[in-house]
Design a protein that fits this description.
Keywords: Acetylation, ATP-binding, Ligase, Nucleotide-binding
Family: Belongs to the ATP-dependent AMP-binding enzyme family.
GO molecular function: acetate-CoA ligase activity; AMP binding; ATP binding
CATH architecture of one domain: 3-Layer(aba) Sandwich
Pfam families: ACAS_N, AMP-binding, AMP-binding_C
Strand order of the largest sheet: 5-4-17-16-18-19-20
Bound molecules: 5'-O-[(S)-butoxy(hydroxy)phosphoryl]adenosine
Protein name: Acetate--CoA ligase
Number of helices: 20
């Protein structure tokens, strides 16, 4: 069945029409070495590659692209643009405070990154060393990433919303001897202490971390608009300098802006980014230099139809892959002007995004469905009050976009003229995989549509057979490698193989379900594994349950998702307590505080349901399907429970369900 399609007038600057896409796509699949060999030329290489793809979805599962080429990612994002663009804006930084912004030119970026890179070198940071970046959305976050790339250090950005314990576990996993942080993060007019969390994390990592670099945000650029903050006594939060501690401004002051970029092999690691899996602790997704950067730059240019001089705004946090690929590496490799926003969508008012679009004349705007839905509930008057005529292309990422949100975005933000690029991809894929190329084909709300060049999606049935008939749901997997693909799980290649290649041998399995219509358009139906997507944040149920179960009063938990109007999915937690413990509101609060400390505020349960027991099969397995149905309030969908070991508990759970 095909839906009504929406056509957008306009033409793409690279892809002439649908036929052109089809021709290029076919080439990319039939002769990937020729195709990607040519695309790879968009970067500057110190020494050229002579091979292109060397990737195996079997046996050793080694993925290599451009493996004998050498380059530097930072050089590609800055230096090579200087002859033409030294005075063009590279980063437009908008502070949380509406009155505070900066335009950072490519020359200024070169200087800041060079000084930072030399500073890192002076502390002993070397090629291959891991550096944790735990920063708010300030320009220094970009400087830090690029400075690492410049000297060949491997950065691992940890989202500022993660707790001290989450931070510590990441420091340990990648054995990071260096941490870059800030005293505070400022969001929505409030200050959130970051350095405090680092201090806590250091309690269990002091044998690993050698140096901590702290950016004092009250330094020479005061980007904090909130009065009252002056009365804060910082000395309470930030302990006096020890041997380990150094202030960013002290570190960079006397440094030269010129720092020779390290010569990196295409397959040298660029960064590690932790993401949740369906089992165990978060895994370190490793991306390397050449293939990742080629893919980031090329997808950014093609899928957003990015044209020189345009202002591109991706609202993601730098702590997520979207912030890496489409806020930093993709745009800067293309010599773009990329906007970094420190704050939140609703401060000082729910018009903030649109006010920023108007003020800076944003041309391409890329955000998440959860943000659209929450602004939608505030009313369109916040959008219609602003001049959004500079907008040309809109993007969506992170979860399936529901038709209502798509239509609202289309009508009130895009004025019915801006294509909406619904981009399906993952931390693991490095860049976009399935998305409409703007203007090149007509769109259907809620469908990510067709694959990008080189991407060969298949839908597999339970037996692992490829589904070819239209309108059948299957597991979304990929047949061939693409340059942006992750290379391994840091320190655990077996986990890489087990997670992505074991379910369907010979394929990369995404963990998502999808359905394809007669036109070949793909609609993503959501995760088919135990991964939740709460407001576009990815969380493993096992990881959450493990964290809850560590609480001394908790015997066992089961975490499921349920449909949530704004967040996409809400977090429903069933908890059983040890004998002698009694459920109470007090204990509820305690458990909420507990999980926020273990993981971070993003793991705050929406509903917490105490139950004397969980429904189980006779073999003792928790029946999650039933728990999901109860959480969704789909009582009729529960079906027959008579085969359970404890069928009576289902009735109790229904009666005590948290509405
Ligand atoms: C999971 C990956 C890709 C950067 C942000 C999330 C879901 C992502 C879409 C989309 C439907 C989407 C998938 C995917 N997802 N984009 N356009 N339509 N679902 O990265 O944290 O690695 O999460 O997000 O379920 O597997 P991530």
């Amino acid at each position: 069945m095909s839906d009504d399609k929406i056509h957008f007038n306009g033409s793409h600057h690279l892809i002439h029409d649908f036929k052109h896409y089809q021709t290029l796509y076919q080439q990319s699949i039939d002769t990937p070495d020729a195709f990607w060999g040519e695309v790879g030329q968009r970067l500057d290489w110190f020494s050229p590659y002579t091979t292109v793809a060397n990737a195996h979805f079997k046996d050793n599962h080694e993925i290599k692209w451009y493996e004998d080429g050498t380059l530097n990612a930072c050089y590609n994002c800055i230096d090579r643009h200087l002859p033409d663009k030294a005075n063009d804006t590279a980063i437009t930084w908008q502070g949380d405070n509406p009155d505070t912004y900066q335009r950072i030119t490519y020359q200024a970026l070169y200087n800041a990154v060079g000084k930072f890179a030399n500073g890192l070198k002076s502390l002993g940071v070397k090629k291959g060393d891991r550096v944790i970046i735990y920063l708010p959305m300030i320009p220094e976050a970009a400087y830090a990433m690029l400075a690492c790339a410049r000297i060949g250090a491997v950065h691992s950005v940890v989202f500022g919303g993660f707790s001290a314990e989450s931070l510590a576990s990441r420091i340990k996993d990648c054995q990071a001897a260096y941490v870059i942080t800030a005293d505070f993060s400022t969001r929505g007019g409030k200050r959130i202490p970051l350095k405090n969390n680092v201090n806590k994390a250091l309690e269990s990592t002091s044998d690993i971390v050698k140096r901590v670099i702290t950016i004092y945000t009250d330094g020479d650029n005061d980007n904090n608009g909130n009065s009252g903050s002056n009365s804060h006594d910082y000395s309470e939060d930030i302990p006096a300098n020890t041997e380990r501690e150094i202030a960013y401004h002290t570190l960079i002051n006397a440094q030269s802006p010129d720092c020779e970029p390290a010569v990196m092999n295409a397959e040298d690691p660029l960064f590690i980014l932790y993401t949740s899996g369906s089992t165990g602790t978060p895994k370190g997704v490793l991306h390397t230099t050449g293939g990742y950067l080629v893919y980031a730059a090329y997808t950014h240019e093609v899928l957003f139809d990015y044209r020189p001089g345009e202002l591109f705004w991706c609202t993601a946090d730098v702590g997520w892959i979207t912030g890496h690929t489409y806020m930093i590496y993709g745009p800067l490799a293309n010599g773009a002007n990329t906007l970094l926003y420190e704050g939140i969508p609703t401060y000082p008012t729910p018009a903030r995004f649109w006010q920023i679009c108007e003020q800076h004349r944003v041309n391409i705007f890329y955000t998440a469905p959860t943000a659209i839905r929450s602004l939608m509930t505030e009313g369109e008057q916040y959008a219609t009050g602003h001049n959004l005529s500079s907008l040309r292309i809109l993007g969506s990422v992170g979860e399936p976009i529901n038709v209502e949100a798509w239509q609202w975005y289309h009508q009130h933000i895009g004025n019915k003229t801006c294509p909406i690029v619904d981009t399906w991809w993952q931390t693991e894929t490095g860049g976009h995989m399935i998305a409409p190329i703007p203007y090149v084909w007509d769109q259907v709300p809620g469908k990510a549509t067709l694959p990008f060049f080189g991407v060969k999606p298949v839908l597999l049935d339970e037996k692992g057979q490829e589904i070819t008939a239209p309108d059948h749901e299957g597991s979304l997997a990929f047949k061939h490698s693409w340059p942006g693909q992750m290379r391994t799980v840091y320190g655990d290649h077996q986990r890489f193989i087990d997670t992505y290649f074991q379910t369907f041998p010979g394929y990369y399995f995404s963990g998502d379900g999808a359905i394809r219509d007669a036109d070949g358009y793909i609609r993503i139906t959501g995760r088919v594994d135990d991964i939740l997507n709460i407001s576009g944040h990815r969380m493993g149920t096992a990881e959450l349950e493990d964290a809850f179960n560590l609480h001394p009063k908790v015997a066992e938990t089961a975490v499921v998702g349920y449909p949530h109007d704004i967040k996409g999915q809400g977090l429903y937690v069933y908890a059983t307590l040890f004998k002698g413990e009694t459920p109470s509101d007090e204990l509820k609060k305690e458990l909420v505080a507990w999980i926020r400390e273990k993981i971070g505020p993003i793991a705050t349960p929406d509903k917490l349901h105490f139950t004397p027991e969980l429904p189980r099969t006779r073999s003792g397995k928790i029946m999650r399907r039933i728990l999901r149905k109860i959480a969704e309030n789909d009582i009729d969908g529960i079906g027959d429970v008579s085969t359970l070991a404890n069928p009576a508990i289902v009735e109790t759970l229904i009666k005590t369900r948290i509405a």
